[in-house]
Amino acid sequence: MKKSKILSIFMGVVILLLSITGCSSKDEVAQGVTDTTIKVGNVAATSGAFATVGVPFNAGIQAYFKQVNDSGGIDGRTIEFVHYDDEFDPVKGKAFTEQLINDDKVFAIVGHFGTPTIGATVDLLKETGIPTVYFAAGISDLYYEDATSVENGQGLFPVQPIYVTEGRLTVARAIEEHNVKKIGVIYTNDDAGKDLLAGVENQIEKLGGDYIVVKEQVNPGAADVSSAVLKMKNENVDVIIAASIQATFPTIVKELINKGLDKPVFTTYSNADATTISNFTNDYVNAQNKFPIYSNAWVDLSDEEEVQAFVKGMTEFGEPDYASNAFAMAGWIAGHFMAEGLKRTEGNVLNWENFMKAMEKEEFKIPMGGTVDFSEGKRLGAQAMSLLKVSNDGSTWENVRPIEDLNDILKRVENK
């Protein structure tokens, strides 16, 4: 082979490698960055069954970016947001994610949405190295204790709690609130349900003693969960953990009411919104045997100053109708983390390497929440949560316990 041809092939490989790392040099800006704009984007379900989550979530992101842009942007640049609707379909989600990275050439992905799409694209995100800030799900593939290279998750910045951690926390809450021993788990056959179950079983193993887990699997979005509920009834469990997200949780609650079970129910923070419980409000109000329904929450609505900042932001820069929507709050927080990371990069060349260093520099305060620390490769998500309970009229979630770290709750449980 001629030397010139070898050189040509070598240069082609170099160009390919540089194209997937987002920048041609550590001293040059990354893809998606111009003198006046920074292009970021996401893939989220804004139509179909999960539109009630995806639409307000994206509205929160866009409102935060508009507030930043109207205030002059970041380092002279405004944030441009590109979005594709995958309808909660992982095949579409992966294709659109590839489109964002390779065709739109976004600088970063913000608010990567939904367990199916995240699961289908997490390897792609690591392979390309593109910074991905905030995931609207908490699957275990996002959990890293030492993400020191892009291959093992350095570019991933999860903020929401990881489901495995939440499963552990839910066990601790159930024991503390109701002194339970026999724990029933109805879990969906997807990453969210299986990760929550893994956390439950992990914590039960750590606690030891005579705790028992009774588990039954259902399909995501199942219209009939009667056999799973009957198993919980026949096994006479003390509590039921509904390890499922929005499409299945209301169905489980309705069937529990239908079968006359009156055991306490705990579920994930993903269901902590009035829109979700509105799907079973009438059934709950009319139930003869009322039972408490709990959810975790990593957003602290008792912080009046930060809640009002969100309400004002959604009213002035976004959709006022979402000014009390929990999913819009999550989007607002996603927008905050993206913008804060960009602000921390001010004065340096805006590329992926400098951005990741800026994200790891010091811990972040979560608007309406605790803190998240990405330093030294930590990718753990939020580990402190509050406890909510459905009101007697079934219309809203009411605060029962303040935001507390998992380890603090476990100390109380272990000392009971």
Keywords:
Rossmann fold; globular; alpha/beta; 14 strands; 2 domains; about 45% helix; seven-stranded mixed β-sheet; disordered N terminus
| Order of strands across the main sheet | 7-6-8-9-10-13-14
Query: Quaternary status of these chains?
Result: single chain
Poorly predicted runs of 5 or more residues: 1-21
CATH class membership of the largest domain: Alpha Beta
Structure overview:
By secondary structure, the protein is α/β, with parallel strands linked by helices. The chain contains 14 helices and 14 strands. It has two domains: 3-161 and 303-382, Rossmann fold, CATH 3.40.50.2300; 164-297 and 385-414, Rossmann fold (3-Layer(aba) Sandwich). 44% of the residues lie in helices and 18% in strands. The strands form three sheets. It has a seven-stranded mixed sheet with strand order 7-6-8-9-10-13-14, sandwiched between helices. Helix 2 (51-70) crosses helix 11 (304-317). The longest helix is centred in the N-terminal third of the chain and has 20 residues, at 51-70. It is globular.
